[in-house]
From TrEMBL:
Protein name, entry field: ABC superfamily ATP binding cassette transporter, ABC protein
Pfam family, one: ABC_tran
Family: Belongs to the ABC transporter superfamily.
Record-annotated ABC transporter domain positions: 5-217
Keywords: ATP-binding, Nucleotide-binding, Transport
Provenance organism: Lactobacillus intestinalis DSM 6629
Length: 217
């Protein structure tokens, strides 16, 4: 399998505080990788670097040619009175003038994320799982071939978690989307992911999810 991402000697410091040092890892095309690690070890910092929102102190990273990255944040700050429908929310980043082609893309992603039948429900009234799938649909509109999910299951109930993970599995298996999933949920990662990156004490360990024995203290 080819690499979609190569990280070499990546170091991040905030002033003199070292967050991590000399990280080296690769992600394979079509893999499903959990990025695990205790609170505050730098997972979000690493993702922000990969998304080019932060510049690392030193080291390099390179995505393979043709990699198109999608980012799915954890849903939050959607108040009960939030006025947009699920469909309008998913369409937020599309051009103002909605051509037939754009409308069809939105419909197709709503269908893919099991939201089509409730597309007119207000986001404020939607369940946590529905809101989270709306964020996923938004990211899928750009047709990414790799997605990064940041704690996307963190505040969902067990059945909404399973539905989201099944959907991610489907995207991986049927649409060949490479997955990097930031999570604290080790059982869920064991069930759905095949590899892990464990970020702790400023270094990273990589291996098979079935063999993961991280220390979360
Ligand atoms: N802009 C910044 N300036 C200074 N320190 C920062 C900055 N951003 C993050 N940090 C520090 O870097 C460390 C890593 O933070 P980060 O949010 O990346 O951790 P995390 O592993 O994602 O944590 P969590 O699991 O709680 O989300 C923390 O100690 C944090 O306080």
């Amino acid at each position: 399998m080819t690499d979609v991402l190569k990280v070499k000697d990546l170091t991040m410091k905030f002033d003199s505080k070292v967050i991590f040092q000399n990280l080296n890892f690769e992600l394979k095309k079509g893999s499903m990788t959990a990025l695990l690690g205790p609170n505050g070890t730098g997972k979000t910092t690493l993702i922000n670097i990969l998304m080019k929102l932060l510049i690392p102190t030193s080291g390099t990273f390179e995505f393979a040619k043709g990699v198109k990255l999608g980012y799915v944040p954890q849903f939050r700050n959607i108040e009960a009175d939030y006025p947009l429908s699920i469909r309008a929310f998913v369409s937020l980043n599309t051009p103002l003038i909605k051509t037939k082609k754009i409308k069809e893309r939105v419909t197709s992603e709503l269908k893919e994320t099991h939201l089509l039948s409730i597309q007119n429900t207000r986001m404020g009234e939607a369940s946590g799982g529905q809101k989270q799938r709306a964020y996923l649909a938004q990211a899928l509109l750009d047709k990414p071939n790799m997605i990064i999910l940041d704690e996307a299951t963190a505040s969902l109930d067990p059945s909404a978690k399973e539905e989201l993970m099944q959907l991610i599995k489907h995207l991986n298996e049927e649409h060949d989307i490479t997955v990097l999933f930031v999570t604290h949920d080790v059982p869920l990662a064991r069930k759905y992911m095949n590899n892990y990156l464990y970020l702790n004490h400023g270094t990273i360990t990589q291996g098979k999810m079935s063999e993961f024995e991280g220390d979360y203290e």
